[in-house]
Fold:
Amino acid sequence: MDGPVLWPARNVAEYAYCPRLFYLMEVEGIFLGNRDTEEGRFVHRRVDRPSNALESPEKGSEPDPDKPRSVRSLVLSSPRLGLTATLDLAEIQGNRATPVEFRKGHPSHRNQSPANEPAAVGNDEAAPLPEPWPLDRVQVGLQALLLEEAGYQVDQAVVYYAAEKRRLSLAVNEALKQEAFATLQAARQCAEGPRPLPLQNDPKCLRCSLQPVCLPDEIHHQRRSMEDPEWTPRRIWPLRDDGIHVVAQQEGVRLGIQGMTLQVTDREGKVVRSFPLANVESLSVLGNVQVTTQALHALSEEGVPVAFLSSAGRLIAMVDPMDSVSAEVRRAQVRILDRPEKCLELARSLISAKITNQRTLLMRNHPGLPEEAVRELAIQSEAAAQADSLDSVRGHEGQAAAIYFRHFPDLLKGEMGESFARHGRQRRPPPDPVNSCLSMGYTMLVHECVAALRTARLEPSIGGFHVSRPGRPALALDLMEPFRPLIADSIALSTFNRGELTSGHFLNTAAGCHFTASGRKAFFLAYGRRMATEVTHPVFEYRLSYRRMIHLHARMIAAWMLGEIPGLSFLTTR
Structure:
């Protein structure tokens, strides 16, 4: 049986800063670090080391008032309040206690004169008076409530701002305690859902570590036509793309952890590569590559998904970190995808964008593409966008695919185009190098989309266009549709036409045509380049890498399912 829910005071205080930030952190368990959070951890490095055990004062006892004590990382909990906190520092003298909160930044400076002192003569504005921010005031207020619950008398609290080396005191009075308690009650109500909308044009979003998750500007960009056609969002900035995506495919190597580093060792135990664990975003393991239990634990703690694939590129299993679940998002996904009209809406957007991208790829690369093919693909794209059933969407997708793959061999030079023209698109098994390359590209795209959906707190197995079956990531297959021609098909064209992949990189067996070890290495070099290529979003008009674009689309699907945005639009290129 579950015990009482204890809310962390630090997260409750975030409600005073931004209700959506509180919801994402406390309810959905999402945390992303940035420069500000790392600097904050550095400031806390000393107070995060707990002091020795501390006895709470007994009622009516008289502790020695001459023995003041500073206690670091004091943990307090109150089932009655439903609250818990780890105090940075508590200054205790007798039965009196003062909570001290450490902050890395600056205090708030309001333009007002100190009490009973006039502003300086000749100044148009009063000298700014530093004071704690609302978030900090609420947090020490909650800490004061916990200290009082533990039997201490709390008359004041302190917030220390490291950027100015300034220690600010504030009185712990009824007003502060009521403000803290009211914030706790409001946060509890917020946690019951639905997820709050982002702040609009708020400067706090600029430095927020969860901006890539919250997407305040993107969501309000999509909502503006619903609420206020005259409202113009601020200039949107792209998400950073500085993570490391590791692909381990050399037979016999071993991945382990040394400190905070992911290390790759060869058969003799020599370290051949190492990666900072904090920068690793995904790991793909192909064939006979060993991963230690310690490495799996460390990667899971960092929220890094691990995909295990066969040497031929078939996805076998994924290690999914436990922090990628949100009950509200999952409920919304099930409710939305149980409605045929919503599945149709999703399918229309996906397949229309996919056909448009197929048409663009042919027009860019075909030396003499017939006008009839260009026109027919445009017709199929428009028809898919207007289809009245999922079967109709699938029919238009099939007709477009027949036209697309009929002309695809003409984009390939020499024998590769000829062999693909003989076989057409075949998957199981792939009969030629081009089919093998396409299959590997699609498999890696599925892995990328599964990881993106997990990050967006969506369940990959519950799809809208593709039928959900055991072991099938239907929603990941949905999400990858517009990206097939942009990523996998483009990789096949570029690698074969530039000679990066040749027939010598493949082995023909009774089980089909598959990559050799050198072929896989050449493929993944091209794959990494393509995923890092930046492209302009057609709606938001900023540039993102293809990998970040997939993550953005996954989050926008989640926002659509939650009713935060009215519709969907997927990446198309010109």
Summary: Residues 167 and 507 are 70 Å apart (CA to CA). The longest strand covers residues 83-93.
